[in-house]
Amino acid sequence: MKIKFTVLLWIFPYLIWANQFDGSIKEIQNIPEIQDLKNDPNLNLLREEVKYHLRQSQKNIDLKIYQYRLKKNEDFYYLMAKTYMDHSSLLSLNQIKIEDFKPNTVIYLPNCRGYFTEKALNQPTNYRIVIASLKKSFYFYPHQKDLMVFQKQFSEPNHTTKKYFFPLPTKNNIITSPYGWRIDPFTNKKAFHPGIDIQAEYKTPVYAPFDGKVIFSGFKKGYGKTIIIENQNEQFLLAHLAVLHVKVNDSVKAGDLIGLTGKTGRTTGPHLHLEYLFDSKWKNPMLIFRDYFSSRNE
User: Fold this and answer.
1) Taking the complete model, does pTM exceed 0.85, yes or no?
2) Over 70: is that where the pLDDT of 295 sits?
3) Domains (ranges, CATH) in the chain?
């Protein structure tokens, strides 16, 4: 099969092939191109296909790939918002870093959200594609995500010794908004999101993520009821809480109950907003809890 794919790459340098492992190969002779991200017919079709596939099972996917060349002032987050794609689908298919999504870069867009990987996972899939122009073949797992595809885009915090406590008790956490640039849900404009949003039911217990001193406990504009814990040159901010169980100057230990989740401040629903600062600079909190989330889907 590898030899056959290699031959196809040389004979059809710009084709995409899809192998559904039923003994036949589906040939896609034309890769539709999207000219702009406003009213292009192919863009509208892509959006409709994405919405349709979100309602389908993994066995009812008609996998297609579109092509788009990024224009001035367009980047990864803009593309993600305009195409209804998620970060895992775009990053795993294109195999480039977030900062490489820049003007004049040709990007491939799937019509279904999922996870593309060059090595088969330990689970069945009906799909395998070969993108000749990338000279890579992928297994495709519809409706799956991999947080690590996004997390590895960011550098590690400059520390290795401290122990941290995950602030929520639930096991199946869902990251509703990751760290980094995104389209703000209120303004529909690009804005930097300095933390992560973790889905949580109303009044879920919130625990101190490390030993430290409470330097803020009260209401912050936009954040709602907020707690900030500091330890030397590190800080954690936990926001949108319903109840605060600590006050300023309290000393807390990792795992102490400090509050309950809520929906105060500028939020669309109950969740925990978590920020981490090192030397007064924002860092991605997911890197600290990498081991906790590495085996979980978003």
Assistant:
1) no
2) no
3) 2-145 (no CATH), 151-293 (2.70.70.10)
